[in-house]
Amino acid sequence: MVNKKIKKIIFPVGGLGTRFLPVTKSLPKEMLPIASKPLIQYAFEEAKKAGIEQFIFITGRNKNAINNHFDHAYELQTVLDEQQKEKQLKEVTDWLPEAGRIAFVRQQEPLGLGHAVWCARHFIGEEPFAVILADEMLMSKDGFLKEMVECFEELNKSIIGVGEVDKRYTNSYGIIDPEKIDFEGKAVYKIKNMVEKPDPENAPSNLSIIGRYILEPEIFKYLSVQTKGKGGEIQLTDAMKEMLKEKEMFALEFKGPRFDCGNQVGYLDANIAYMLEQSEFNSQIKQILKKYI
Question: How many angstroms separate the Cα of 146 from the Cα of each of 54, 163, 175?
Fold first, then answer.
């Protein structure tokens, strides 16, 4: 019997981060800080809030900083303890996962999101699972993935996170063709079709996939074909589109602040927004903004 609880998550973090060169030559994009925490830690904490218990990172070369971030730093912790810096000590230890709950898998080749997810197939087995793209930040008190998990437990079908984008920029996103359904007052859609990066005139809607997925294990059957799509990469959207021919899939719309931290402007936007949320920095950030506006 298939376990319908979502206990496992994949973090695809093997990309080259070319839009942030030269810094990503030696520093993983996922380790870039938003306020005082790296992108990947926000994604990890969102997953924990959703009840996830096993965390699978699909990594690549020069990504060891991510591995180290999710481990104890005994020298640092010893110094903080000796100096009685309890607040700082908690900031580096309190959120860490228990031993044995985290795995790192090398993608070996940067062949796209679909390939990264496929690399985790032996760790997932026959269970439904979640996927978070760390550079898509969603500002939400309890975490959007938790809402998606609750939705999945009601529908028992794959759930894709979506959000509105300006119709002019649909060629930068995976776009769904939605059919609104009545579901406990939430913005839930049955997905009729999905298209990877359509031109605005061909886009079926302005609802884009936003880097949050809950997928049934059957997706691996479609990913195993290893068909390359746009950009010469194995696209997760293409595999989901094939799966949609045989299984129903749904989308849950996120309506809060979103930040595409995969580009410099979105990254700056996120830093401003998250810094303004911290009372100790709020007034200083406003003063800086006034200086440039």
Answer: 15, 16, 22
Residues 6+ apart with CB under 8 A from 124: 8, 10, 56, 217, 220
Q: Which pLDDT score is estimated for 231? A: 63
DSSP symbols for 39-76 = HHHHHHHHHHHTT--EEEEEE-TT-HHHHHHTS--HHH
Distances (CA, A) of 132 to 12, 83, 107, 151: 7, 37, 16, 16
Tens digit of pLDDT for each residue in 1-45? 344 789 999 999 988 888 999 999 889 999 999 998 999 999 999
Q: How confident is the model at residue 230 (pLDDT cuts 50, 70, 90)?
A: low
- The residue with tokens 């061909």 is 202
Q: Rounded to the nearest 10 degrees, how much is the dihedral formed by the CA atoms of 260, 261, 262, 263? A: 90
The pTM assigned to this predicted structure is: 0.92
